[in-house]
Amino acid sequence: MMKNTEFYYKNVFAPKPNKPNHIGVAVIIQYENKILLEHRVDSDRWAIIGGGLNINEDLVSCAIREVFEETGLKINKNQLQYFNIYDDPSRIAHYPDGNVLRVITVVYHIKLFDFPILKTSLESKELKFFSKDEIMRIKMAETHIPIIQEYYILE
What we know:
By secondary structure, the protein is of the alpha+beta class. It has helices at 59-71, 132-135, 145-154; strands at residues 6-8, 22-31, 34-40, 46-52, 81-86, 92-94, 100-112, 124-130. Strands 1, 2, 3, 4, 5, 6, 7 and 8 form an eight-stranded mixed β-sheet that branches. A hairpin with a 2-residue loop joins strand 2 (22-31) and strand 3. The longest helix has 13 residues, at 59-71.
């Protein structure tokens, strides 16, 4: 059994999904010229804050819940700005339990005006704000790289 979650994007060696498509959200949280990322426990990769959509919630509620669960930040729907949806069929996540999912992610953006007090969840080793240059030097979840690249192009 593999130890870490593995992410694939435009990789011909990616495993084929064995479960229904997974819908999730990610929230790009910006403070000054930096973006908040979490160092994931399950993959030893840095990733945008976010997670899976529960069967009984809408996307905005999922974004608000995930931000709170992973950072301790309380945000509201008026702060969230829609950014984009990422649905390339090559976005694959392979989990240690054997599940392989095609990942569809709706991305929101939020700007903070005060430096936040952050609280890590059990899902992350660390939360940290990164500049554009710093992000280029860290190990990102492969499925999040195109999101970050597009964000900086459109910024």
